[in-house]
Amino acid sequence: MVVKAPDVPEIVAAVRRAVEAGIPVVTLVTDLPTSGRAAYAGADNRSAGETAAYLVGQCLSGTGARVLATLSSNRFRGEEEREIGFRRVLRAHFPDIGITEVSEGHGTDMATGSLVAAAIASDPEINAVYSIGGGNRAVISAFEAAGRPIRVFVAHDLDADNRALLADRRITYVLHHDLRTDARSAFRAIMSRLPLQGRSTAAALSAVEIITPYNMPAVG
């Protein structure tokens, strides 16, 4: 099985039962490290968060800025790891930049937009975004409705919305890793654990790329 799921006790227990029944399980994009899964296939999420902090810090250091970090849910370990890395680098190297977090919008426009609108209404210092969990059109719309400029916006993944927003310069950077590479890595890890397939191998972490309007890879 290849699983992308929140790190909650019910899911962990179900994966552990599958493993105990002899079914190879690989987690994709977000990990379940205590489940007994065979491997994790995806990006190094903590490093991705650290990279986001570096980009934000280079843009905003010394300005006393405040960044809005948006998560779809605190239950996804991958998003949590991104936030941990982001906070660590800002705290260590850019201590004048503050962070406000919103979560549980589940990547949907309506819920995410409402959370963002409430956050920026309560804090006039927020002027940057690190979007960990998506819903980026709604995030931008909330800032526009409030008449608030975004000085730097770092997002994840080159989906159709982010491609368009990046091309229109409404997002500053996209941190991207190739999901097809992750899928291949996941299936290699599964096949290595089936009978007669030889020695087991761990899935390799995929590299995180910094994408701008000028180096956006072609679709396909």
Topology:
Blueprint: E1 2-3, H1 9-20, E2 26-28, E3 39-41, H2 45-60, E4 66-70, H3 77-93, E5 98-102, H4 109-122, E6 126-131, H5 136-145, E7 152-156, H6 160-167, E8 173-176, H7 179-191, E9 209-211
Parallel strand pairs: 1-2, 2-3, 4-5, 4-6, 6-7, 7-8
Antiparallel strand pairs: 8-9
Fold and architecture overview:
- The chain has 220 residues and is of the alpha/beta class.
- It has 2 domains: 2-43 and 177-207, no CATH class; 45-176, Response regulator (Rossmann fold, 3-Layer(aba) Sandwich), CATH 3.40.50.2300.
- The chain has helices at 9-20, 45-60, 77-93, 109-122, 136-145, 160-167, 179-191, and strands at residues 2-3, 26-28, 39-41, 66-70, 98-102, 126-131, 152-156, 173-176, 209-211.
- It has a 6-stranded mixed sheet, sandwiched between helices. A 3-stranded parallel sheet has the order 1-2-3, covered by helices on one side.
- α2 packs parallel to α3 (77-93) and α4 runs parallel beside α5.
- 43% of the residues are buried.
